[in-house]
Amino acid sequence: MIIRSLTLALVTATAIMPAVGHAEERWSIATSSTGSGPYIIGSAIAETMNASQDMLDVSAQTSGGYNDNLNLVAQGQVNAGLTLLSELGDAWRGTGKFEALPGAKEAFAPLRRMFPVTTATFQCVVRADSGIKSFADLKGKKLNINVPATATQAINRNLIAAFQMSVDDFQIMEIATSGSYDAVGNSVVDATCNGQPLPSGSIQQLAASAAVNVLPIPDEVFDRINEAYHGTMLRTTIAANTYPGQTEEVMTFAYPEVLFVSADADEEQVYTATKAYWEGKRPTNPAFKQITIENATLDVDPPLHPGTERYLREKGLIK
């Protein structure tokens, strides 16, 4: 994903946030393009929030994607946005891919966390008949790490480093997620590592024609990659027989997608949205299942918004 220019993020926001005290205030969540995964997720969040409160009229708003959402929220052009928790922290700190962008830390200083909503589970998939049982077995083989400038490729590169290996140890392929599983099925690549909901429909479709293995991520490797991502990764397990051919439990990790707002977002509105989401009927999409309210208490950047913090205190989750 190409990072939008920060020029607009450095000027005073001209959009005016909704006023407090009127029923059904409009409350927008920046997502991505219509029909995309983030748009579907944002729509599900909005539906849950709308069903259990009458202060806010919440809706998903199309955008240019995660990087665009950071700008839109920082400038006050939307009420909330979706992005990866790791990238939200990087934007706020001015680290990672934002380190080389002049003024990034100042531009994104107003960003505040609400709570994680979904996870993408990192799944390194090979054909079961390949004989590949571990990530080390991939040395010298064709490994797909996704296209450049994506969060997925960045995670793959950090994962390789966490295994104390180098990209030179593999025949690196750069195929988008949409084509990666066909590439495994047709033996164009030996493995592809992608963040997907659990279970992944794409992997299920692949496994229906060619049984698969998912490669485990050992504890020490997880610790290294979690450190690289400032503690934002979650340890998770793929149950045995989640996919045809995957007969054993697999340890891996997941990375959360988070809802975030600006520091000057109205506290009552953020509190209402938080309470409505966690006390309403949760979305049924599998991507939501691995996140609980406890995940909102992670000690990571940026700080929680006071509205969400107030709800977590009421629930006895933070002091």
From TrEMBL:
It comes from the Bacteria. The keyword Nucleus does not apply. PANTHER family: SLL1037 PROTEIN. SUPFAM superfamilies: Periplasmic binding protein-like II. The keyword Magnesium does not apply. This is TRAP transporter TAXI family solute receptor. Pfam families: NMT1_3. Keywords: Signal. Residues 1-23 form the signal peptide. It comes from Hoeflea marina.
